[in-house]
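Q: My labmate handed me this sequence with no annotations at all. I'd like to see what the chain might look like in three dimensions before we decide whether it's worth expressing. Could you predict it?
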Amino acid sequence: MMSRESELVELVNARGIPTGITSVELAHHAPGALHRAFSVVLIDEAGRLLLQQRAEAKTRFALRWANSCCGHPPPAASVGEAARQRVAEELGCDIGQLNEAGTFIYQARDEVTGRVEHEFDHVLVGRVGAALELKPDPAEVASVRWVGATQARQELDASPERFAPWWPHVLEIALGAL
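A: Here is what I predict for the chain of 178 residues:
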């Protein structure tokens, strides 16, 4: 099986227009190459958001809390389909439709590994039922938990260092789409 670091990502300009292709590993070397990514936020019937604590083995922002799932669509792939597939791989569940809530660009350096995130991020929101059964992949996910929007904002305000740097943007875009 090919490592996630050797998978290909689509380089884009500030408008999200493809400009080339590189590996995940090279895209995340300083200063970071702007590339397409996605962040999924799953919301249950009670309005709670599924947060994921990233696995310790992650090369960027390990053990930080973030949205339900994130990843990179392969070049020229459907962002929505790639996101659904990644949810299945990381969280071990099949979900219904994901709706794109918006996009944003961010850049952040992981002080522990020196790797850089520079992403044109598509935020996708999915509604899930209370009976959703999760089987997180321990190589990708350290922990998961459901929280209300108010609690998510309060925790982020109180301890921003516990969260991935993209999470504040993802949270606001996702909540704005509800």
